[in-house]
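call fold target=GntR family transcriptional regulator
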Amino acid sequence: MFDDRSPIYLQIAEQIKNDIVTGALAEDEQVMSTNQYAAFYRINPATAAKGFAQLVDDGVLYKKRGIGMFVAPNARDLLRTGRRDSFFADVVDPMIREAKAIGIPLKDILQHIRSWGGD
């Protein structure tokens, strides 16, 4: 499940974010405890805790003292907005710059996208 491209705690946070974005985890749903997560994936509990802490800092999870961690009420919208912004900045904007550099008109790009079933 984990790879060597980034720290495990960041991969944990990303996996939980993906589960929220896809709807596998719903708002106010309890997530596995850090100890359960660590045991399931055979990692250090401190590593799991660091990933969860990152999500709390980002406003994606919240703690209920003595009960556990839960998905924040606006987490899905928050994550989708962030990913949308990143998508444009990391994918669309560089694509448009490259298209301009090599002389592809915007209308050709839009036509190509529509041929994939876009609106």
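return ok
The mean pLDDT is 93. The chain has two domains: 8-72, 76-116.
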